[in-house]
Amino acid sequence: MKITIKDVEYVAKLARLSLTIDEKNKFAGQLNAILEHMDELNKLDTEGIPPTSHAVVMENVFRDDKVEKSDVIDGIISNAPEKEDRFFKVKKVIE
Do 8 and 32 meet the contact criterion of CB atoms below 8 Å apart? Predict the structure, then answer.
């Protein structure tokens, strides 16, 4: 598949880009180079190779979520410039 100037113009129109003729030629060449590289990659024999998303084995390092009691609320609220009971008090920003 070869990218033509018309293809570049179509994509530029979708992206609302104004391109000069030099830019259209440049981008058509660059896109064709990308497609040629993809054709080279498609020639590789990948039979028997499992699909992977990472080159190395990854494992989840997150811990389980657990609800725990926290006694630091009073310390946090004491730092607030304005407070009401156990909540931060902020100025109204919506009119």
Answer: no
pTM for this one? 0.50
Compute the average pLDDT of residues 21-36.
96
CA distances from 90 to 24, 78, 79 (A): 53, 15, 13
| 8 class by beta-carbon count within 10 Å (0-12 exposed, 13-18 middle, 19+ buried) | buried
Alpha helices per DSSP H over 1-95: 5-14, 21-42, 73-78
CA nearest neighbour of 19 among 55, 69, 30: 30
Domain architecture of the chain: domains with CATH? 5-42 (1.10.20)
